[in-house]
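Re: the 413-residue chain
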Amino acid sequence: MDSDFLYEAEARGFIFQCTDIDGLRNAMRAAPIAGYIGFDCTADSLHVGHMMQIMMLRLLQRYGHKPVVILGGGTTRIGDPSFRQEARQLLTPEQIATNMAGIKRSIEGFLEFGEESSDAILVDNAEWLLPLSYIDLLREVGVHFSVNRMLAFDSVRSRLEREQGLTFLEFNYSILQAYDFREVYRRYGVTLQMGGSDQWGNIVQGIELLRRTDGKQGFGLTAPLITTASGAKMGKSAAGAVWLSEKKLPVFDYWQFWRNTEDEDVGRFLRLFTDLPLAEIGRLSTLRGAELNEAKKILAFEATALCHGRKPADIAAETGRRIFEEGLRSDQLPGIDVPSAELKAGIPAFVLFVRAGLVSSNSEARRLIREGGARINDTLVTGETALFYNDAAIDGVIKLSKGRKQHRLVRIT
């Protein structure tokens, strides 16, 4: 086993910082290692903003190393304050359990789980965090943490500079994440923690705790936080988060998110979010003009196939082809069901666009219509409050379009 993981991780753009890249390279050359990433259970699905971390675990496994996924059944009860403007809403144990089940489903398709040495394992940090005695934790672990140093971390300082401040509850999060690192080292031999660059301070704390209490060396590796070429946060769309769960976001919408990638991002996203060989990505990255659309289709298909499987990705791609190239409606297009009785009374245009999920608010829908971006049955909508009735349906459906690339069907029931 050599350090090809680090070579490819760097070539694909996964590496932002590493605590000791030469030491990590030597450790990976000596033997397979175990590396972990933690996911707090703040929602019942992961979203595209988590894909960098998932793909890092996937790449780690491809080179024979062991991915360890920690679900934050314990840490979610506090909430990570890193670079947040205000404290997270505290969740009940029941909400956390529901979210954890959804996150498990989000991630299981990306990794191989089982009993082999390189098979991934999934653990819940509530297993070791909830039984902790507060006094024992302070005496054994708290003594190794410098408040001065914790206050100097960007993630903490940015909150202290705001009016919201930082609660003592949140301030403890870094200690618990460090405790996680030591615990998974002791239980599973994990020596590498990975995460987004906003986790750098927390990761360093874990490495220090492992060194001080166990005399062992750990490594930290962070990925850059990704924004689109236009500066938008990765994983967000006009209608909200781009969820990995089909229950929260239709497969076609997921495919369409990638198909609508900005031209400048195509090559970068192919490297980060697909398994395609780097040489093939290099070829696709040279395409320009109309040919670049073919690269976008490949990106959309490969990213969707990783998340949902190749057959659903094929269906989404065919749906897109029929809609965008032939101008046809398709039964596979995401949509909503609206009772005939409701449409009999008439529904305002802006309400239909909100209910269909093409926009996230009434004001956004009204603005879309005013700016000429809304169409119903391929006809421009000229009035925000124009009423639509059953007779607007063609073969039992009404087609809504936001611009030229986002579509929904209203099915009359």
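The mean pLDDT is 87.
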